[in-house]
Specification:
The protein contains 7 helices and 13 strands. With 222 residues, the chain is of the alpha+beta class. It has a single domain, classed as Ribonuclease Z/Hydroxyacylglutathione hydrolase-like (Metallo-beta-lactamase, Chain A, 4-Layer Sandwich), CATH 3.60.15.10. The strands form 3 sheets. It has a 6-stranded mixed β-sheet. Strands 1-2-3-4-5 form a 5-stranded mixed β-sheet, covered by helices on one side. Strands 10-11 form a two-stranded antiparallel ribbon. 26% of the residues lie in helices and 27% in strands. It is globular and about 55 Å long.
Length: 222
């Protein structure tokens, strides 16, 4: 029986869905995309009794990654002596330039506590990450950013899509490095083949299922 639970903490002025995935029995879990408001994330972890195993990033945008270094520091400082260091994992190395500029990005948007970041481990297409004992496939889905990743567990019927696909919309591509064609190709070749029954949490707003977006998302019609 799957005991994986999700708690969503909207953070930053962008109301980004920082997601805590955890095993309800053991309490072991992963924080996905802590973009800021670290005290709120820590409070949610305490409320749900989560023992964090890693911090996972889908991509390098400020609203998804700016709080990762501070959260890592505070979690490691509060751990017991000799406990394993909690790593920051992902995204793809092609988002390094965004992570190197987090502090500057944060100044523009009033996001406090931001720090530039080099992850403890970069990820690439074809790898897997383990979240609370469950394997998730790593999918490279460029277009919104060059190194954007999605994480899918078909066996659980669940995926984390970041800013690739939303309920009724798709990720923005109006950045100098954005690529609309690449984004739609990512969705059609990486996300839709996961299957219509896959439910997902996205970077902003309510989640959905792949089947609902295949049928009703205006960006995927025609």
């Amino acid at each position: 029986m799957c005991t994986l639970k999700a708690a969503v903490v909207p953070v930053t002025p962008f109301r980004q869905n920082c997601t805590i995935l955890f095993d309800d029995a053991s309490g072991v879990g992963t924080v996905v995309d802590p973009g800021g408001d670290v005290p709120m994330i820590l409070a949610a972890l305490s409320r749900h009794g989560v023992k964090v195993e890693q911090i996972l990033l889908t991509h390098g945008h400020v609203d998804h990654a700016a709080g990762a270094a501070l959260l890592q520091e505070q979690l490691n400082a509060s751990g017991t002596e000799g406990a394993p260091i909690i790593p920051v994992v992902g995204p793809d190395r092609r988002d390094a330039f965004l992570l190197e500029g987090l502090e500057q990005q944060a100044l523009q948007f009033g996001i406090e506590g931001a720090r530039n970041l080099v992850p403890d481990r970069w990820l690439a297409e074809g790898e897997q990450v383990t979240i609370a004992g469950h394997p998730f496939d790593v999918l490279h889905c460029p277009g919104h950013t060059p190194g954007h990743l999605a994480f899918a567990a078909p066996g659980l019927g669940f995926a984390i899509l970041g800013d690739v696909l939303f309920h009724g919309s798709v990720g923005r591509t109006d950045f100098p490095y954005g690529d609309t064609d690449a984004l739609i190709r990512s969705i059609r070749t990486k996300i839709l083949p996961l299957g219509d029954d896959i439910a997902f949490i996205c970077g902003h707003g309510p989640g959905s299922t792949i089947g609902a977006e295949r049928l009703g998302n205006p960006f995927l019609q025609g």
